[in-house]
Specification:
By secondary structure, this protein is an alpha+beta fold. Helices cover 25% and strands 23% of the residues. The chain binds zinc ion (3 copies).
Length: 342
């Protein structure tokens, strides 16, 4: 028997054991039956708008287009297409004053100042991205962009994380299709590490690290799909079985400069890939999140991408003890089966 491979992440100082010797296929991970979830009144369904705080953004139908609005304190908009509300139990909350004086209390204590919002992706409870109408998913991406623009302009915000939890085991306590947005008053460690590694390459070679990665993976066995604007691939050192990333082919640091054509293509790409994953592994729980840079300087060498992490493995003693992961599906196998599924 040969050795497994230990691979280093493109940018992070993180190592993963790729269990090439196990030869497991994605279908080995398919769930036997659907999870059971408590049913009850859904606070995100139309008619229950009073169960959430007033919306900071709603999309309403207006002729053939969209009208953007907000809820007033007591009055809630009905017949919305997209609805974005503050989280009832925010991890990070906006300051009382517009410019808080002191977020860092001392070197070991900061106040969790920021934003925490829930973006309700559809009035239809089960309209998850894998099966969503492209038009609806396009509204979702546009709403991500609207909230990113509004929140990243706040002086106390250093990073805006846009992410999605799908399925109970991936942390979605409510089954209605929704994403979350959390803005922090400091740069998260993972993004900062990616930024720093990208900067080092930029200083040496005047090249964007992700542009390099895309160029390489487009011609590798880890490519899942490529279209007019995007490349999808299974990262070389994936820590999650079936992990994939979607990145724009043209250098873009953030989502804010996307054209409507690009937004629509992105929605289609995302749907195609999540639908493929759903078919392949029987609707697995997953998380996804964007990595992006809003900063003019770092924007030269940082390149936005969406990272999708299917939750098919349980990280236990070794991973928690050492920070070394073991992935039992090789990224090459993941990509091969994804190409067949989509
Ligand atoms: Zn619902
Ligand atoms: Zn780039
Ligand atoms: Zn990243």
């Amino acid at each position: 028997m040969g050795f497994n491979e230990v691979r280093k992440d493109y940018l992070l100082d993180r190592w993963v054991v790729i269990a090439t010797e196990r030869g497991r296929r994605p279908s080995d991970f398919a769930k036997k039956e659907g999870e059971k979830r408590k049913s009850g009144v859904c606070p995100m369904c139309p008619g229950n708008e009073h169960m959430t705080p007033p919306a900071v953004l709603v999309y309403l139908k207006s002729g053939k287009g969209i009208k953007k609005a907000k809820d007033q304190d007591s009055k809630r908009h009905k017949n919305w297409i997209i609805r974005c509300v503050p989280n009832l139990y925010p991890a990070f909350a906006p300051p009382k004053d517009t410019t808080p004086k002191k977020i860092m209390k001392n070197r070991e204590l900061a106040l969790a100042v920021g934003h925490h919002e829930v973006l309700i992706e559809s009035p239809n409870h089960d309209e998850h991205p894998a099966d969503a109408r492209t038009s609806q998913l396009t509204h979702v991406i546009n709403a991500y962009i609207d909230r990113l623009r509004a929140i990243s302009a706040k002086p106390y915000v250093k990073y805006v994380s846009i992410f999605r939890n799908h399925g109970l085991e991936a942390g979605a306590s409510l089954s209605h299709a929704h994403s979350q947005i959390i803005a922090t008053p400091f740069m998260p460690k993972t993004v900062e590490e990616e930024l720093n590694a990208s900067k080092r390459l930029w200083l040496r070679k005047k090249r964007c690290a992700i542009c390099n990665i895309i160029e390489k993976e487009r011609h590798s066995p880890r490519l899942i799909l490529e279209n007019s604007h995007f490349v999808v691939f299974a990262p070389y050192a994936s820590v999650n079985p079936m992990e994939f990333w979607i990145a724009p082919k043209e250098h873009q640091a953030t989502l804010l400069g996307m054209s409507q054509k690009e937004v629509e293509t992105f929605a289609k790409t995302l749907k195609t890939c999540l639908h493929g994953l759903k078919q392949l592994v029987n609707d697995p729980p997953y998380n996804y999140g964007f990595h992006l840079s809003e900063d003019k300087d770092t924007g030269k060498y940082y390149h936005w991408h969406l990272e999708v992490y299917p939750k098919l493995a349980i990280w236990a003693g070794f991973e928690k003890n050492t920070g070394i992961y073991i992935n039992t599906i090789t990224p090459e196998t993941a990509a091969e089966d994804m190409r067949k599924a989509i």
